[in-house]
Design a protein that fits this description.
mainly beta; three-stranded antiparallel beta sheet; two-stranded antiparallel ribbon; 14% helix; globular
Length: 71
């Protein structure tokens, strides 16, 4: 990842690999709460499958759609 992609995936979308895993076998979804960001979406291909996060602002709410590989 470049610095911009790393910021997008880890902070804005919140796709984070836990310290005790490799290859995104264990992840945490913990996005930053940015109210004035209306929409963002992205995915990462891992050995286990695709991890995808979409976030959108709906009035005062921030809505997330998360797609994880099986297992």
């Amino acid at each position: 990842f470049g610095a911009v992609c790393k910021c997008l995936y880890q902070n804005i979308l919140g796709i984070q690999q836990t310290e005790d895993s490799c290859g995104y076998s264990h992840i945490r979804i913990a996005p930053a709460q940015i109210r004035n960001l209306s929409w963002a979406s992205g995915s990462i291909e891992t050995v286990c499958g695709q991890i995808r996060v979409e976030r959108r602002t709906d009035g005062e709410d921030i809505c997330f759609t998360v797609t994880l590989p099986e297992n």
